[in-house]
Amino acid sequence: MRSVAIGIMALGAAVTAGAGPLPTGQSVTPLAAAGASFTTLNPGLADHPDYIAGQAAALVLSPDQRTLLVLTSGYNRINGADGKAIPAASNEYVFVYDVTGPTPVQRQVIALPNSFLGIAWAPRGDAFYVSGGVDDMVREYRAGAAGFVAARTFALGHKAGLGLAVKPASAGLAVSPDGTRLLVANVQNDSVSLIDLASGSVGETDLRPGGGKPGGTFPRAVAWASNTSAFVTSERDREVIALAVGTKVTVGTRIATRGQPVALLTNALRTRLYVAQSNSDGVAVIDAARARLLGSFATTAPKAVWANPAQLGGAGSNALALSPDGRTLLVSNGGENAVAVVALSDLASGAAHGRRAKSEVVGLIPTAWYPTGVAVRANGMLFVSNNKSQPGPNPGGCRKTTVAVDDDRSCQAANQYVWQLEKGGLQSLPMPSGAELARLTQQVAVNDHFPGAEPAPKDAATMAFVRDHIKHVLYIVKENRGYDQVLGDLGAGNGDPKLTLLGEAITPNHHALARQFVTLDAFFDSGESSNTGWNWTTAARTTDWTEREAPVNYAGRGLQYDQEGDNRNINVGYADHAARLAANPLTPPDPNLLAGGADVGAPDGPGGDAGNGYLWNAALKAGKTVRNYGFYGDLSRYYVPEKTGQLIPLERDPFTAKLQVFYASKAVLQPITDPYYRGFDQAFPDYWRFKEWEREFDAYAASATLPDLSLIRLPHDHFGQFKQAIDGVDTVETMMADNDYALGRIIEKIAHSRYAADTLIFVIEDDAQDGADHVDAHRSVAFVVGPYVKQHAIVSAHHTTVDMVRTIEAVLGLAPMGLNDGLAQPMRDVFDTAQARWNYTAMVPGVLRSSKLPLPPGGAAMVQPRHGAAWWAAATAGQNFNEEDRLDTAAFNRALWRGLKGDAPPKALLTAKKDDD
After folding, report:
1. Does 467 lie in the same domain as 360?
2. Which of 364, 387, 410 is the last residue in one of the domains?
3. Which of 387, 413, 437 is at the close of a domain?
4. Cα gap 721→738, rounded to integer Å
5. Could you read off the pLDDT of 126-155 as tens digits, one per residue?
6. Minimal CA–CA distance to 736: which of 719, 712, 759, 750?
7. Smallest Cα–Cα separation from 318: which of 246, 234, 268, 374?
8. pTM (2 decimals)?
């Protein structure tokens, strides 16, 4: 394979163009390989013949290599004319393909209510088994005359998951070599279940070591080494656990892994166990007989193409396959949109005679967006499943934030929510070698912006100038708004005023900032929803757990929001159980519950620094000072039952009252967090968040000690809690106006302070899921404000969350945290080194004067909201506003449109359809 290294940079002219940049900044080219084909996943629904399923989660090839199964685990909800999900059409699926020909041929589709990752063949190929996910069961399908038919179900018997108000779920599963038993990873119960396939009996073994010691949590994948031994991964605790299997399962050796173990594969002789290590991107090799780690290797790229000297994570290794001769390992890299081709060493492959001394990546094959599974036939045909696709425009998109429950059902019936628009697929291609593999590797290098794969960027001097002149950064994160929804009526840039709900009358400061500084009309949030969005916003990447869990969670198919420091609603920022109880008395009393401080959703930092891949980690590592206002906190204290006595009241001035209102869910954030700054709570106005930030800012200004990086959360543009909201900020209009005014006041405060000349403000939405947009469901609102920022300019270059994070790093002189920001370029085009002077004065939105907030006199005249709090409370009855995005997606946006527009949505919103659907 040396030809890959020699020829790779000479093949740039043969590289195909990408299908347009993703909201991550990367491109995908699944048809770049000679002989490649790609098929979407159409289940053939009679009433929805054009429907394409999303989130292909796994694939498995039958023992005789004639049949391929592709399993979906994701959102996959279809809403009817009434705006509600159609149960019969809102399923997960197993797609059955005949792969004996040159391209896969779909033979059957099996619908099942729920699933999560697990699918496995019986050794004889006459049956297969599927995880039931939140249904806490395993489903059996057996071969029949007309295809596979449902046979038995095996209930796993869990009443709940191990956590705070969470459900159980089954994940990975595997059948023993003799076909008599089935092992199941209970991802929410930290255990494995052993099913006797003859009798149907089910036994269970706890994987935790006990004694308050960490281990065994979030088990995900299982594999058999023999009929009496097996292995299971603990994704959160980064260990592979050896199991002795008799009439019951006994826990044996615990083998530590550098990254998060998410997939297992044995070689044909079952002497070697390969472990895909996500987060830190690598594969571990285990001697299966001795349960001993033999070594590991990186999977990001051939060293001759990119050596990755800082060991940046984010390639997202998540699935494995072996070539027929057992000498080449194929690794699905979800975050890299590629399959890594690895030549195995003699030790790693278990070969008796060979020549290779070490395992190494020799090439990369481009895939569709976020590959999740890989398989290869003996004839060299390769198959890759993928999780999602570019959503495109969503002019009919809506979330349950503003519409009356019984009105405008057609909005929800448009089925244009971002998780609905992202589709899965199946790629097939002949195994490339030689010059073809070199060409494909170069294509991945271009798609992912590897150094040297593209022309050197211009204007590097601009960023050097900005870095020399800027000493402080404010990073303000808001919630859920799309570009057209807010700025469609701007009158400049690429906006559609027909889609604007929260226009200039409600958001005068948003509009003024866009006009006075830079209108970013092609800015895309990298995440789909808050769980992916907050990872992208703070770390410029996600983890494989987040990508797999997020759409399942948002579809109401179980699992929970694990992305802001809580795991199963437990604040793992406190590693000590007593400390957890003190911070939240509702914490279950079990001292073995998620023991230790590991966070399953946390990205790693450079060099595999476990769970420390966030912007604040990079800043602290660089010796910068950081202050946190509302990022990553335990929110349960805002809505626990009153009778517990632990509900944190809606105190406007908690500092004076000496009332702690925020408990950080990251250990490193706890000493640098303002405990008096309230986190995500929709009953609480952003105005009072501004006042608390202002209190500390005035003290910093007086002592000339403003932190280098301030993290500020302004969440009130999410909306909700209308009945509980204080100060008359209890309608969508007043909440958005409150958010707008607080943003304006923060910027005004900096503009009129001693820090005006050396401070930049970056403003972003964590995601854009709540707004319709005529360009893309990821397009969103973003601002860069301060000295040396262009004024009265429109920048229409494609920019993303990753680019903004990279720009903050460049301004503060921080090292990249991971693969995405490490390969991205700063947003040089928003800066003008001659534009040192700037100013800003906040405007009071007229509708905010209908509230009881202590606003300054004068300004815009009072405007009454169309509806009062009681109307909004009734229109959104039954919604859960306690945490981000706990809503019924469809009904909330129906209410939003009806409440603000007062009439049906434009016909164009209701009939819009993606071209590729």
Report:
1. no
2. 387
3. 387
4. 14
5. 999 999 999 999 999 999 999 999 999 999
6. 719
7. 374
8. 0.92
